From TrEMBL:
This is Aminotransferase class I/II-fold pyridoxal phosphate-dependent enzyme. It comes from Streptomyces vulcanius. InterPro entries: Aminotransferase_I/II_large, PyrdxlP-dep_Trfase, PyrdxlP-dep_Trfase_major, PyrdxlP-dep_Trfase_small. GO terms for molecular function: transaminase activity. Keywords: Aminotransferase, Transferase.
Length: 377
């Protein structure tokens, strides 16, 4: 395995995710129980789950699951989909297939750490930062300027983790065109797609815009089913998919059979699940608005354009790292400080923290947070 640095976010979660009393930085929407998911299944899929043979599965993924994924695209079909054990395996193997020594990649920051560190372990990488002073805007001219003759990949993530930013469909389409024009693979992390507050801002999927582009998705985030550990890449370059399959032979080989059937049920019920999850976020956001309105001198709050996480600014001179440490130790409220999103490629804000807005009943955690902020400790 390529030597990689410690994964700061996951190390932080290893310490606190299951011990903190209030998990207020969750990156996924409120999940459902197995019985709730099975209640959404048709008779055929319910029977398939109940009578499932627990043998090996196909490396590319269950054909019926791949068909259900393809149904979410305009121009892709089941043969353009390969499934993985979550989005992390997909990202790791894609970068190892697409990049080699002597290549170059462009990565938009901030991002989930492996989107940066995996390419950096393989080749030269240039970062292009979203601008926090312009509502996290992406400068397409900066992306264009970063591209070199040996650039093989441009990696983006919208709705963005951690900012919740969505660029315009016109800019995203232009980005795909720019990559196609130069023979570059656009790698698009779309794991929060479907949780946009404004349906008019839903971006096209990259694999629909370009035969070279890769669309990454997973059951974990927008569908709120991280326990299934099913992710996928959709790409109309089938020779590239074949290379991804051969790479997967060295990692998981194939996915969990029960998880694939459950993921198939979830994808078929996608409209229902996403409506539920968007409604939960819409219900929660006024609660977060009210919390941050109580402390205007301490925080700068902005609801996300999409997804279920936000990235507020903390104004106190003590600094966001000390603030998050004291908050979890003294009040049991877990947030993610800016250091977990530190980039080696670009300057990144040091006064921000990630907070999740997609879990049910956030009032209790916010009440403990507010009590601590007021000094009633």
């Amino acid at each position: 395995m390529t030597r990689l640095p410690d994964f700061r976010l996951e190390a932080h979660f290893s310490q606190w995710e299951f011990t903190a009393r209030y998990h207020m930085t969750a990156s996924d929407v409120q999940t459902m129980t197995l019985s709730e998911l099975l209640a959404l299944a048709d008779d055929q899929d319910r029977a398939a789950f109940e009578n499932l043979s627990l043998g090996y599965t196909e490396t590319f993924g269950d054909p019926a699951l791949r068909e259900a994924i393809a149904q979410t695209f305009v121009r892709a079909d089941a043969a353009d989909v390969i499934c993985f054990a979550g989005a992390e395996e997909a990202l790791y193997l894609a970068m190892n297939v697409l990049l080699d020594l002597g290549d170059h990649a462009v990565v938009v920051t901030p991002n989930y750490q492996s989107a940066e560190t995996v390419p950096l372990a393989l080749c030269e990488v240039t970062g292009v930062a979203l601008d926090p002073d312009r509502d996290w805007a992406l400068d397409l001219d900066a992306v264009k300027a970063a591209i070199r003759p040996n650039t093989r990949v441009v990696s983006v993530n919208f709705p963005n983790n951690p900012t919740g930013k969505i660029i315009s469909p016109a800019d995203f389409t232009e980005l795909a065109r720019l990559c196609d024009e130069r023979g570059i693979h656009l790698f698009s992390d779309e794991v929060y797609r479907g949780l946009e507050r404004d349906p008019d801002r839903i971006l096209p999927q990259a694999a629909d815009l370009s035969a070279r582009a890769l669309s990454l998705n997973v059951t974990s985030k927008s569908l709120g089913l991280p326990g299934l550990r099913i992710g996928w890449i959709t790409c109309r370059d089938r020779a590239l998919l074949s290379r991804l399959e051969r790479a997967k032979h060295y990692t998981t080989i194939c996915n969990s059979a029960p998880s694939e059937v459950l993921a198939r049920i979830a994808l078929k019920a996608r409209t229902t699940i996403l409506e539920r999850n968007r409604a939960l976020i819409a219900k929660n956001l006024p609660v977060f608005d009210a919390f941050f309105a109580e402390f205007p001198d301490d925080f700068e709050w902005q609801a996300p354009d999409g997804g279920c996480i936000a990235y507020p600014r903390y104004h106190s001179p003590e600094g966001v790292e000390e603030f998050c440490t004291r908050l979890v130790e003294e009040a049991g409220v877990l947030l993610l400080p800016a250091s977990t999103y530190r980039s080696e490629l670009t300057p990144t804000p040091t006064d921000r923290f990630r907070i999740g807005v997609g879990r049910r009943n956030p009032e209790e955690g916010l009440a403990a947070f507010a009590q601590w902020m007021r000094g009633d400790r």
